[in-house]
Write a structure and sequence with these properties.
Elements lengths: L1 E9 L4 H15 L2 E5 L3 E3 L17 E10 L3 H14 L9 H7 L9 E7 L4 E2 L4 E2 L8 H10 L12 H7 L1
Antiparallel strand pairs: 1-4, 1-5, 2-4, 3-4, 6-7
Helix pairs in contact: 1-2, 4-5
Length: 168
């Protein structure tokens, strides 16, 4: 049995309902949830592309989950993407060049599921990088992780989640 750490969140639609639905879909399709953080509300992080400046970007709701699974990292990724789609996320089909240009901006979404850790696996492929490459820079990731796994040591940074949170 493997342990995968996920961060779920979104800022469109009924955010609380979507968090609950994503949590349930993860239970049904990925594995047994062995730890679950509180739900955190945070302001959007990064450079958000604002298509119409008269609209306010809603805050995100986020939750961390520790899940026991028999799925491979790629199966978890494919299942997470399918859950996002089922909950209303639309990912445009872009060429690599277009994706590169647009990746400087973040977009509002009903649900986002990020794989933060998969056991202590270190992986860097075009499809999946583990641990999540920017998780240690994001308070909205570290706070819920610190609630459910404060002493877990990041496999490449060799610091606990609590230490990483204190460094932000």
């Amino acid at each position: 049995m493997n342990r995968v750490t996920l961060l779920i969140g979104g800022n469109e639609g009924d955010r609380a309902l979507l968090i609950d639905q994503a949590t349930e879909q993860i239970r049904q399709r990925i594995g047994s949830v062995v730890a679950l953080s509180s739900v955190y509300e945070t302001e959007p992080w990064g450079n958000f592309e604002i298509e119409n400046s008269k609209f306010k970007i809603e805050n995100f709701l986020n939750r961390a989950l520790l899940v026991e699974t028999t799925l491979s990292p790629w199966q978890v990724l494919r299942t997470a993407l399918a859950i996002e789609k089922d909950l209303g996320r639309v990912r445009p089909h872009l060429s690599p060049f277009t994706f590169h240009l647009s990746s400087r901006f973040y977009h509002s979404r009903p649900m986002d599921i990020d794989i933060i850790f998969y056991d202590d696996l270190v992986l860097d492929t075009p499809e999946l990088t583990l641990p999540h490459p920017r998780m240690h820079l994001r308070q909205f990731v570290l706070e819920p992780l610190a609630e459910i796994m404060p002493d877990y040591v990041h496999p490449t940074l060799q610091k606990s989640i609590t230490q990483l949170l204190h460094e932000i």
